[in-house]
Amino acid sequence: MPKQTCKALILIAFWLWLPCAGVSAEEDEVEDEDETPWLDQGHRYVSTRADDLATWMDSFFGVRRVDAEAAYSTLRLRPSLEWSEQYGWDTGLSLRGKVNLPNLDERVSLLFSDEDSGSLGDELLRDQQNQSDDVALQVVGREGTHDRIDFRLGFSSGINPELAARYRYQTPLSEQVSARFRQELLYRTDDRFGTDTRFDIDVAVSADRLLQWYNRARWDEKRDGFGWNTGVTVNQRLSNNRVIGVYGTLNGRTQPRHLTQAYGMGMRYRQNLNRKWLFLEVQPGYFWRRDVLEDERRGSAEIVLRLEAVFTGDIEEAFSR
């Protein structure tokens, strides 16, 4: 924990040093109920209701993809307290986000990810399935109306470098439905070549209710077969400061034998705490896991309590329409 705390303080201090830093005192107040905060400014094409609601939900929950593609710098500091019937109590502290490098037209940025490797249900959720590098340099090669290409050089385990090229395509299928596809090609010195494929569907059930179906397949030369996960979430916006949702998810591998390693269900409640940059999140769930086919599958009740402080270089642009 002391090592993680030092890393967090160093990165926050570095971010505050940048010219874009600074938050005015007026931004400490919670957003009024009739305003619409948290709209990603990178969302540039003519959007549908499904696009707008999905972007709002993903931004409110702090999905990594949104931070990585946003036009503003963001760091998220997350202390957490976790309990599992199977693993007992645990605490965590993570720091992740993106810092745009000055004078480079917002096309070059540093990505930070200092995530705890917990054993609770978070790793089954889509926004936690992004196995980010500890530090990475990201360069946007092309950004069009519906698509985006970027390149990344990162370091994840010790000094093992990773090269990645990623293509993302997003388009509305109707006023209520939108689709997003992402293909990533990777090269790591430890795992050699690999691929990461994602396909998501967002459905605006109503003005404040969103259904999301997400799918992911991963492959690398070091392991046999594909790793996969799929799941469904339904999030309900109670107000501009509160969201509650339920989810069901499962993951596994295709080789050496078809195996569903884990599946489970749960709910998430998230709200602002008097400051629109400070969040509280409660996430109870129940999961069944086994690592190999011979193991007996064990059920485990779990709960995560999490605070999140969001530091951003342009809080008004990041949080409001």
From TrEMBL:
Keywords carried by this UniProt record: Signal
Signal peptide: 1-25
Top-level taxon in the UniProt lineage: Bacteria
Protein name listed in UniProt: Inverse autotransporter beta-domain domain-containing protein
Source organism of the structure: Haliea salexigens
